[in-house]
C-alpha cells in the first residue's frame, strides 16, 4: 500500500459520493418494473400504451443517470491509472457499486463492467 496524500484521499471520498446516482438507478429500475407489472397482475389486463410509456420513462431516467455518473467514471480512471490509488475501502466500495450497476440493466451494465475491471486493476497494484 502506498502512502497517499490527503488530497488524494479526499478526492477518492468525493468520487464515491459521485456514485450516488448509480444507487438511485438501481432502485429506480426495479421500482419501475414493479410499477409496470403490478397493474397487469392485479387487473389481469394491461394497457400496452401505458406499459410502453412506463418502459420508455424508466430507460430515459436510467440514461440520464448514466450521464450524471460520467464525472465519477473519469475520476475513477484518473485515480486508477494516474494516482494508482488502491486503498482497501476504495477497492471494496468500487466493487460494490460496480455490481449494483451490473444488475441495473441495460445502460449501467457496461459502466459496471468497466468499474469492476478498474477495481481489479487497483487491487493488482497493491
From TrEMBL:
Keywords: Membrane, Transmembrane, Transmembrane helix. The chain crosses the membrane at residues 6-34, 55-79, 99-118. It comes from the Bacteria. This is Uncharacterized protein. It comes from Thalassolituus maritimus.
Amino acid at each position: 500500500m502506498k502512502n497517499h496524500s490527503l488530497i488524494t484521499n479526499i478526492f477518492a471520498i468525493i468520487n464515491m459520493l459521485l456514485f450516488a446516482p448509480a444507487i438511485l438507478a438501481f432502485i429506480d429500475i426495479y421500482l419501475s418494473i414493479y410499477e409496470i407489472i403490478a397493474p397487469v397482475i392485479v387487473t389481469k389486463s394491461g394497457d400496452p400504451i401505458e406499459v410502453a410509456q412506463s418502459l420508455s420513462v424508466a430507460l430515459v431516467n436510467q440514461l440520464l443517470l448514466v450521464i450524471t455518473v460520467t464525472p465519477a467514471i473519469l475520476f475513477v480512471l484518473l485515480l486508477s491509472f494516474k494516482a494508482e490509488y488502491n486503498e482497501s475501502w476504495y477497492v471494496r466500495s468500487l466493487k460494490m457499486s460496480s455490481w449494483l450497476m451490473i444488475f441495473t440493466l441495460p445502460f449501467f451494465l457496461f459502466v459496471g463492467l468497466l468499474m469492476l475491471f478498474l477495481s481489479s486493476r487497483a487491487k493488482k497494484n497493491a
